[in-house]
Fold each of these.
Amino acid sequence: SMPILLSSARASEAQTGDSAARREQQTRIIGEAYLALLADTAGAAAAGDTFTIADALRSQTVEHALAASSARATASDPALADLARHEQDAQKRIIALQNMLATQLAQPTGAQEEGAVKKLQREIDRLHAARSRIRREIEGKFASYADLVEPKPATIEQAQQSLRLGEAMIATFLGNDRIFVWAVPGHGTPAFAATKVSYKEIAGAVATLRRAVDPNASTLDDVPEFDLAAAFRLYEWVLKPVEAGWSGAQTLMIVPHRVLGALPLSALVTAPAAVPPKGALPFANYKEVPFLLRKLAVAQLPSVGSLATLRSLPPPGGRESFIGFGDPWFNAEQAKEARAGEIESRGAPTAQLQSRGVKLVRRAAPPGEGIDLSQLPRLPDTADEVRSIALVLHADVAKDVILGAAANEKTVRTMNLADRRIIVFATHGLVPGDLEGLTQPALALSAPEIAGIEGDGLLTVDKILGLRLNADWVVLSACNTAAGAGAGAEAVSGLGRAFFYAGARALLVSNWPVETASARFLTSDLFRRAAENPALPRAEALRQAELALIDGPGALDAASGRAVFSYAHPIFWAPFSVVGDGGAAIASNR
């Protein structure tokens, strides 16, 4: 029954280590069978029940991070908000210690460190007691706190109530043998479909498209063709069966599941198409492709309930418009060149592509010296990008643009970021394994020896969790910033979870290594449009900036001004996704 299934889903969240993974897999298998049974026996009439069950079954770490920060923001008393943060931090610490304890207990009896086990147990007990005291104090003053930090699975009616005119929500659930999709319009009748297509087929189509946009290309000839047949197949499996529920919308809010979070659905193709013949300008033939982007704007949600959570937050006030970090220096040679004014040409060379997050040669860091950032290439374009955004938002470029040696982890962790509406990081995004010794997703900032600070130069998930933000939008103009925690993890689980927990209301993240010149054009144009039209929704501003890249002149040679190649291939225009309330506008501080 549904109560048993939801109880099972909640129980899986309380587990740690291998037991949690096994319990989650068992719950998913049982849940998928129940969803299929309801779909087969009740058809469209099962839309409501299946919607709520699927919401309970999806992994919810990003939702919980967002709910935690929202609970703090909703607390009217700043001291109460601080108490809530202490309670949430204690819970995070308890989970980390429980994982450490599970690792110790998994060792053979003779290999266990008895003293370490007892110390971990004592610390866990102490934190549990402290957290209980804080929780009682909070709930005595803030009765709705428990409902905010432990959101219940959403109903289809609640989802519809959170939408505005012109919006529709697409919720997905990928089973092993079927894909379940719900299209909920802001007004009108929801649509539901359970299509018999295997997870292997869907994952294969996503992998095919990912190979075209994340090929580790260094030259134009290395960029593969985007498989339009695979893009249309995904459209037929995901969106076409529920078209009646979203066809009138201007903005789609997508709740992706499993591998669907690895590909912006704006790059799907809405009609059968083959790659048009190549012309004189590389990639210009993609201008004729009927991408979904041509029809409407697309945003991504961490969960169904997150939209209602975001839209119920009290509007913060009294903040500066912007702070941006870019062009960090990773070795002494880069610092020397930058200080001497030896900036590379802003034009895109004919034969090379520079990306933020290039595939790196792994080096073994010398013992005791930590992670080595010196191999990372400098990204001077990011300085122009951050300055351009600052100018269109009427920020103080001298004060609000942090570049070079100053763009370091100490600056980020010690300055007051809670008074900024928009925060931009334009640098390399790294995932575990990109550098020897890197075990968490991270943003690369200036090397400590260049900045003259302690640390390793990385803004990792653990450090982001310690930040205190009150930001309408955090822009991660890097690469792989949407990467999850592993195979099957929900989208945006790494850096995104951390920034939502820290207090972001929306994110702009990337799904693969971005080409640096097109990324600069895209983000600068996005904020220019938002500044010129304060009522423009985030997702629509991104859509217009992406269309401008597709239909524009492309990359220009710095010397001659002639077009070198077009930006119409999805590798250039499609990497970024709006995560959060894509229907909200970003008004400039004029």
Amino acid sequence: MKRIKVAAGVLNQTPLDWDGNRDRIVEAIVQARERGASILCLPELCVTGYGCEDMFHSPGVVETALETLGEILPHTKGIVVSLGVPAYRSGGIFNFACLAADGALLGMVGKRNLAGDGIHYEPRWFKPWPEGIATTLPFQGQDVPIGDLIFDVGGIRIGFEVCEDAWVGQRPGARLAARGVDVILNPSASHFAFDKYHIRRRFVLEGSRAFQTAYVYANLVGNESGRAIFDGDAMIASAGRLVANGLRFSYRDAGIVDAIVDIDENRLGRSRSSSFRPALGPEAGVVVRADFKYPTKVEPSQEHAAAPWEASVDRKEVEFTRAVSLALFDYARKSRSKGFVVSLSGGADSAACATLSSLSIAYALDELGEAETRRKLAYWKDLQAAKPGERAADDSHTEIGPRLGAWGPIVLQTVYQATRNSSDVTRNAAKATAEAIGADHLEFDVDAAVENYRSTVEKAIDRKLTWEQDDVTLQNIQARVRAPGVWMLANLRSALLLATSNRSEAAVGYTTMDGDCAGGLSPIAGIDKAFLRRWLRWLEVNGPPDYAPIGALRLINVQQPTAELRPLERNQTDEGDLMPYDLLDRIERLAIRDKLMPVEAYQRLLEEYPQYTADDLLLWTERFFRRWRQNQWKRERYAPSFHVDDENLDPKTWCRFPILSGGYERELRELREWKRANVSSGR
């Protein structure tokens, strides 16, 4: 039997951070070598970072990437390593997976299938490498093979499927298997989305089964460049069996998952398969051969198991908690922000942002320990001098506030900003939530500032402003008056101000520009309100992973969501202003994700929501489409948000819509005509 140890490396990289990216790559190589791995797969474009955007067009960036690659090569002595860089050839820029061994660059394989949908814009920067074409590229005084290559390294054949290559129908892996490839490496930069892990797992397993190879999949981890979150998925499969699976959402700079694979077992499987058709004619592409000595004795691999919550019925809640907490941690440290500031209203959205902020540091302490967390946040002097709390003896009893200890008030500043329309219910909910998660909590009374603006305008226009005539104006000034004070707190701390608007509000513009959406980052703008409310109830009852339930959230969860911008006697609620949130989210999916016209969406709602009258469904459908069209300019102005599913409304990465449009006038007219002809008012 020919058994070798292979490894998948997980890296937390940053675009254009040349020295940092290089050092983390070297750290991963050192870890893999210490574990006795012979072949190491690192993520896609790991030298430059995946999210360089239009800087990939810079000749200087491409040149520096190759220079940095040269700096890494000496560290590959005694090991085979895949590395990712962009490079020019014949006037085009290509995304290359490079294979190095024993300090030398053996060759570079061009990515065949470019990701050009969703948040990905690879065709904007790169050209797809054509099948069967191989040539050379000058590198450090020699011509290096590039293109459609396979590698014969010490008698073991290695090939590449680069990220998107494995997601398409005609996978390169079938052709690689026909050419006798033993190990397929998949260097990836695959962004996080709910349940996407299971899709990746299927194609890794199916690739290893159908191609009868060892399959090594490596992904990025963390918030690499601002919006996309990477979960650090790492998998190794052989002959259709998953033999190693890494822990997702790690806070470490570099991590390794390793496993022993039996090359002869896979070769025997191919020979026994009646469907296997080896390529016997002249080989398309080029086989690059290199000497390499694999260890004769292979040490056992470490145990790698997925976290228990991967199979949990609450997996979406846990994924959301882990993903956004890690993204906040990376966003803060990479922007050198000293913690977070949240205008805590006593409602669901701001409570979600505040809780995730505290968890972002608590999880770092849990995984990295105090010393390593301090090192990663070395720029943050106030944190260095303080002492975090300890975990409870029973992890299930650990509370967030006590875990953070003296770090809590440094990490998170919250502030409740009251007007005459604020209630004791929300005031008490904000205070209790802040105490539970360890925040430094303040209260401002901004009513005098509201009244000052109101009286100033009334004098200028020579009339009184009334709720009957000026409802939206009087609501908005309260939200806007709250922004300057909370911005001051963020400036005083050099902290990151979090905007608290969610995706449901973004869809219909139910937010005040320069008010509640003020901030440098909008962490929950990619998630709908119905899920956020469910998630907060889960935190109250179950608690976040490895922490005690947050009982204080009950004060928020028992409320009907409200902006509290009208006088209290008017009993304002969000759903009264808009529509039931579950229905709003359903219309959004039908209209924006599924691209249905208003009448088509309405027809679906009639089938799915018999509890509502046809007239109400008509009103809400029209309201959604009109407000969606009117408020694209607001979505364009949102602070950066995190991508957590494939229903994002971010116009900069996912969902493009014109700022000016016809406004569905004809479509809404056709909707009313269809309703009159087909549906009675009472159903």
Amino acid sequence: MTFGISDPMFELFISETNELLTELELILISNEDKRQFSKDDIDNIFRIMHTIKGSSAMMSIKSISETAHLLESLFSLLRESNCIDYDCSEISDIVLEAIDYFRAEIISIQQCNEQKLNQSLIEKINNSFEKLKSTPRESSDKTGIKKDNADDENCLTYRAIIYFVDDCGMENIRAFTLLNNIKDLFNIKLYKPSDILENNNTAAEIKKNGFELIFTTNKNEKEIYDIINSNLFIKNINIQIMQEKSQKYYSYNSFKQNFISVSVHKLDKLLDLVGELVTTEAMVIQNEDVQRLDNRNFQKAINQLKKITNELQDTVMSIRMVSLSYIFQQMQRIVRDMSRKLNKKVTLEIIGEETEVDKNVIENISDPLIHLIRNAVDHGIETPDQRIQKGKNETGKITLEAKTIGNNVYIFVKDDGRGLDKEKILKKAISLGLIKDQKQELTEKEIYSFIFKPGFTTKDEVSEFSGRGVGMDIVLKDLEKINGSITIESEKDKGTTFILKIPLTLAILNCMAVNVGNTTFTIPTSFVVECFRLTKDNLIIDPDGNEFVYIRGNVYPLVRINKLFSITNAVEEIDQGIVIMVQNDDKNIAIFVDRLIGEQQIVVKPLPKYLHNVNRLMGLSILGDGTVSLILDISKLI
């Protein structure tokens, strides 16, 4: 049986396999400094390989299932005895290579390419397997898998009823796959229905009554649940212990899976509908006819509607929130691989990985974090000899930390390495023509900002990881896409800290609505510093015609929105409009508008195709009065 790449089952297979691979990667990296794997880690790795083998076989992906089967056999040998002598790091290297192969193979299959076995990897697994086989070990059964002993006095007989996810289809095939996956782990006594392959009508029976198993094992209820639940499409598991003498059942425990997998597209659609609801609610409440109504019961109903709408909006947003742990843990692998290739000793400390952001935001920060971590290992951390000469610990440290402040998440990438070389950066900036006036005094932050220019690098040699001037400019561009920013702090021989500021969500923003002529704009309040009226004495015009405003002893560039977007019928005199001070990355500009409408929460909608090339706009929204508002991209304005 085969499944198309657009089949929901294939999407679920990809999602769950990637989760298992991430879990496997963390287990391996946590054992970097150990001589051998612990028994629990061996069992977990075996379980993961067993699951990937079964699920990929069900999806007819032989390249993955066959490779996973070999690795499963490898770890079954390790499960047999504690007396086998082996190199933990050598096996970890093989499994990590397999993880990379599995991920690449999944991507290749998604692109409709043919499956391709990695013969070099298979040879490495087989060689390691033969090496383990030749090592003295305790005896085992012929299957190479350590089963439960049916005669063990600690064994109990269990009854499990398994229910599969709704509408997964082919429940009898799911039951057969489950049975095949666990037959080597439990002593199966009977299962019901017993003719799951011969009789297709059993699918409906299983859907209604569940798939019943009776088996003996010396494992506890939690272990049983974990093994069964590691299979695909499991919705609910009810486990009972059977009293063997009286053959009576008594309920011991019931495990329920309290989550379901939902398509991202469905979540996006749900958010769009909630956004429309919020907008429509505002249009109703702000309607002049409605506001003139003086009816206490009607006002109570309006308030209740607002409360429910707000709760619904908050709930939908919470569903879209994703922990940073998945991305943060990926950095462990990058640090591990790079430090080995560069002959450096580096540890990664992760703080605040439970911090959550919107899924659309998290998709755009993976690449920036990868570049920053690679930069820290390659540029920042010194070699062990260099660190010892400086009186440092030979092992460098990188800290990846996240914290939520207001409506933003701050991510810190900190290393205790050599720090940024200001003189070298200045020299390179001058050679590239980035500094027009060499007598100009630049602040530290201005000097450090040059590293984000395309093609900028201070590395003299091109290596596998750096030296081409590509990477840091991508970091800035990716952050600007999500309305984020980055700043740098550095001290020579103390280290460097990159501070990323990103919004919690891109879907809903708190904004300041303003009028310019007959056009309405909104400005994200996270950029707004203050608003005020100025007199003509505060306006400064230089010989080139550029305008500035003088405020409390400081001078700031003035941007007239009406001139920027060629809007007619707008206020021209500085003392008749409103000046809004906005800030991004410690840089301030003053924006001149006609008047303020007020602060509103808006649902961000993408720009239509004919406006995609319009710079300085990040989207649009519909305000409560039905007005279409353009959202200013402050980072690009500055």
Amino acid sequence: MKKVNVILILTVIVTFWACEPKRVPIIDIPDRQLFSKADSLFQKQFYEESLAAFEEYLFQFPDSPLADEALMKLGTIHAILGDSKNAVGIYTRLIDEHPESDFVPDAQFQILATLYNLGEYLEVIEKATDFLKTTVSASHILRTHMLLGDAYMAIGVPMDAVYWYAKSFNQLKEPEKRDLIEKIKAIGGQLSPEEILSILDRIEDKSTAGYLSYQLGVNNAEEEKYEEALKVLSAFVEKIPEHEYAPQAKDLIAEIKKKFTYNRFTIGCLLPLSGPYKTYGKRVLRGIELALNHHSSQNIDKPFRVIIKDTGSDPVKATQAVIELYDDGVAAIMGPILTAESAAFAAQKRGIPIITLTQKEDITDIGDYVFRNFFTPKTQVKALVSYVVKELGLKRFAILYPDENYGTTFMNLFWDEVTAHGANIVGVESYDSRITDFADQIKKLIGLYYPVPKDLRDVPIQPDSEDPIIDFDAIFIPDAPRTAGLIIPQLAYHDIKETYLLGTNLWHSEILIKMARRFVQGALMPDGFFAGSASVHVTNFVEMFQEAFGREPEYIEAVAYDTAMLLFQLVGRPDVKFRSTLNKELRKLKNFSGVTSLTSFDDNGDALKRLYLLRVEGEQFIELGQH
């Protein structure tokens, strides 16, 4: 038998025998003497001996005036000894044989308690409902309400359990009342807000309603439904200000208002406006300023404010700036560029959505309030490989890369992506980023590099005596335009001419065309933005930017513009009143139409974009489409 059920039975029994009046037998009559003996053993808790004595008594004197009490105690002994089935049988016998007995209501309740002990919860509920229609005992009513609550909990219907517990609350004394409070609080933690609201409509007791109202507020807050939490908690404090949980409700209200609400139409921005990277910070700032001016001109009723903080590319300053923006009540934060990790940790801790502008690996793994609106090496490689394999039908690739972090990262990503597409890497060579002559590396790729044995070093050799083995359809060179501009003519010199040239977004530079000229024709590269795009969004943006700053915008300014515009759009919505709501809307964002293509965020907070794919034709770059 479960311990909790034994405790229930014993509690009921002790309460029953403590409260019920007992008929004291006259000792000088034989049947009374035997009853007294059995009862004495019962009172001394010699239950086995008492059981036998009461059975003997009922066998000898079945029609005695004390037979009903003997049956009652006999059923109780069976219950104490764990023989629940026999206990129910004895109680039922008492009811059937002595329907007018004062012990009938007690036997009926004991049947309920014993059935509960047997796990017959549905039968308890059925019989208890009937029992409540006939009994007038306040004690029986109270205990039956509690038993019904336990039975409904046992069958997994906590809403009905709370209803019956609530009917018991005011009749209980300490410590039972405190135990019931803990039960109700625990149940409240299992229920949905809708279920708690349904229960509140059914119960009248203010104390119980207060516990449930508070729990509903807590549940809403934990689910980041702060508007609903504030409504429930505020109503709770107003209606039941004397409730013991009212102070906690007030504290939670204050915490929600401080931590999760924000000043409407206020956004923070972290940029390196001083220090070695201030040039990049100022370029991002231009994109944000253009977005603010454009949005303000179209939405005069929504005067957005952008609070700029200079990080100086210092992680400590970036963290402090996040704290200051939190105190300023900003809705979200844009940036930073280089100190994204420290800023992201600080923003995540305070529940502020932050959209970083960085390629730093795994930045969005910091938490669910951290986003990235920036294309990464991985997205570049995916777009490029998908195009050349699926659209051009290329199957064999070579990689020539600088032996440093940038080159190694792209080399590994490109290799993995080519393999994932069912194509092959047939040659890989690295080079020192400080060299300008790449002949040895190129010869190794095409089978013309022959190390000379020591004993033959004085013998003249003819390095061009054999034809190059060019067994690849394309060669990928992840390096800056100046280095690529040196390598590409040397490829042609070694007869690598009918091969596709593939690069990263760094190749999207006039420097590459000026240095490699005719040798770079047809070269392919991805980029996150193309000022020459035929897109109306891009055309309008480029015109606005040129008018404001006198030159064409580049990717960093374009993505800053898009980031600001999508935040203005979301924060300006009347239904977005909490940072948590803004965070959810960012995660639900699908195909925001910006100048850096359509933007969505994946489950991890990384931007999903279709990159521009470009090709060199003559003295310019031509858009092939978005991939």
